[in-house]
């Protein structure tokens, strides 16, 4: 792998999945380092010696301080079908999170109503329905814990902005390093201990089950 090339997790004629570093954006933003989208486009251009622009469709995003899997479409056909799959919630997304404290239960489905404040880039979680809020659901499972932290496996049932961060904070277990949502202190590199770990779905063209998963998580207690 060439220096500055992205770590490719999966690739076929229709889709490509790459690893996003914490602190990197999925798409280009002013005054930010090279985005994952830009890196993948350069990788494709060099690998296939393409002339002109490279098509790459952004299917979903993860927050800048979050690391892990991001899936892109290499064709417009795959992008359209994957957008439908995500819209219809036919995707299983698993995250790993290192949180402060320990939830009361080993595993639990938690439901909140989330309301966004775009000016503050903040999502507030409520335990009952409120005006302007969207329902959000996730299931967590404790993988391991110690006196200070717990490592959780998160199964997302909805895909709201900052959902995992807001819901775990509301549970009383903010993600380590996530001071925006109540963590006691930041990480030295300004990351948060949340990782997009796996994505499962039916391939939009091959129509066969696909499970993309990281070989190894960077999160440890």
Number of strands: 11
Shape: globular
- Give the CA-CA distance, first to last residue: 30 Å
Largest sheet: 11 strands, mixed
Structural class: alpha+beta
CATH architecture descriptor name: 2-Layer Sandwich
Rg, nearest Å: 18 Å
Q: What is the highest CATH level, the class?
A: Alpha Beta
The unreliable regions are none
Question: Helices and strands, in N-to-C order?
Answer: EEHEEHEEEEEHEE
Task: Report mean pLDDT, rounded to a whole number.
Answer: 94
What percentage of the residues does DSSP assign to strands (E)?
Answer: 35-45%
* Overall tally of domains: 1
Short description:
It contains 3 helices and 11 strands.
Report on this model:
With 221 residues, the chain is an alpha+beta fold. It has a single domain, classed as Pseudouridine synthase. The protein has three helices and eleven strands; from the N terminus they run E-E-H-E-E-H-E-E-E-E-E-H-E-E. The chain has helices spanning 36-47, 76-87, 163-170; strands at residues 7-11, 15-20, 57-58, 67-73, 92-100, 107-117, 122-126, 134-145, 149-156, 194-202, 209-213. Strands 1, 2, 3, 4, 5, 6, 7, 8, 9, 10 and 11 form an eleven-stranded mixed sheet that branches. A hairpin with a 3-residue loop joins strand 1 and strand 2. It starts with 6 loop residues before the first strand and ends in an 8-residue tail after the last strand.
């Amino acid at each position: 792998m060439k220096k500055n090339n992205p770590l490719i997790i999966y690739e076929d004629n229709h889709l490509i999945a790459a690893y996003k570093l914490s602190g990197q954006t999925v798409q280009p933003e002013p005054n930010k380092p090279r985005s994952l989208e830009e890196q993948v486009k350069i990788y494709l251009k060099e690998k296939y010696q393409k002339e002109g622009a490279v098509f790459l469709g952004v299917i979903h995003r993860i927050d800048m301080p979050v690391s892990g899997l991001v899936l892109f479409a290499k064709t417009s056909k795959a992008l359209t079908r994957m957008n439908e799959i995500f819209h219809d919630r036919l995707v299983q997304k698993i995250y790993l999170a290192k949180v402060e404290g320990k939830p009361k239960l080993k595993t639990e489905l938690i439901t909140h109503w989330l309301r966004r404040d775009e000016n503050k880039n903040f999502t507030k979680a409520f335990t009952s329905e409120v005006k302007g809020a969207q329902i959000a659901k996730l299931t967590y499972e404790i993988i391991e814990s110690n006196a200070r932290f717990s490592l959780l496996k998160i199964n997302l049932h909805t895909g709201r902005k900052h959902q995992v961060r807001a819901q775990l904070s509301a549970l009383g277990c903010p993600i380590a390093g996530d001071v925006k949502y109540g963590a006691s202190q930041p990480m030295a590199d300004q990351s948060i201990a949340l990782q997009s770990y796996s994505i499962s779905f039916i391939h939009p063209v091959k129509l066969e089950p696909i499970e993309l998963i990281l070989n190894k998580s960077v999160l440890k207690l």
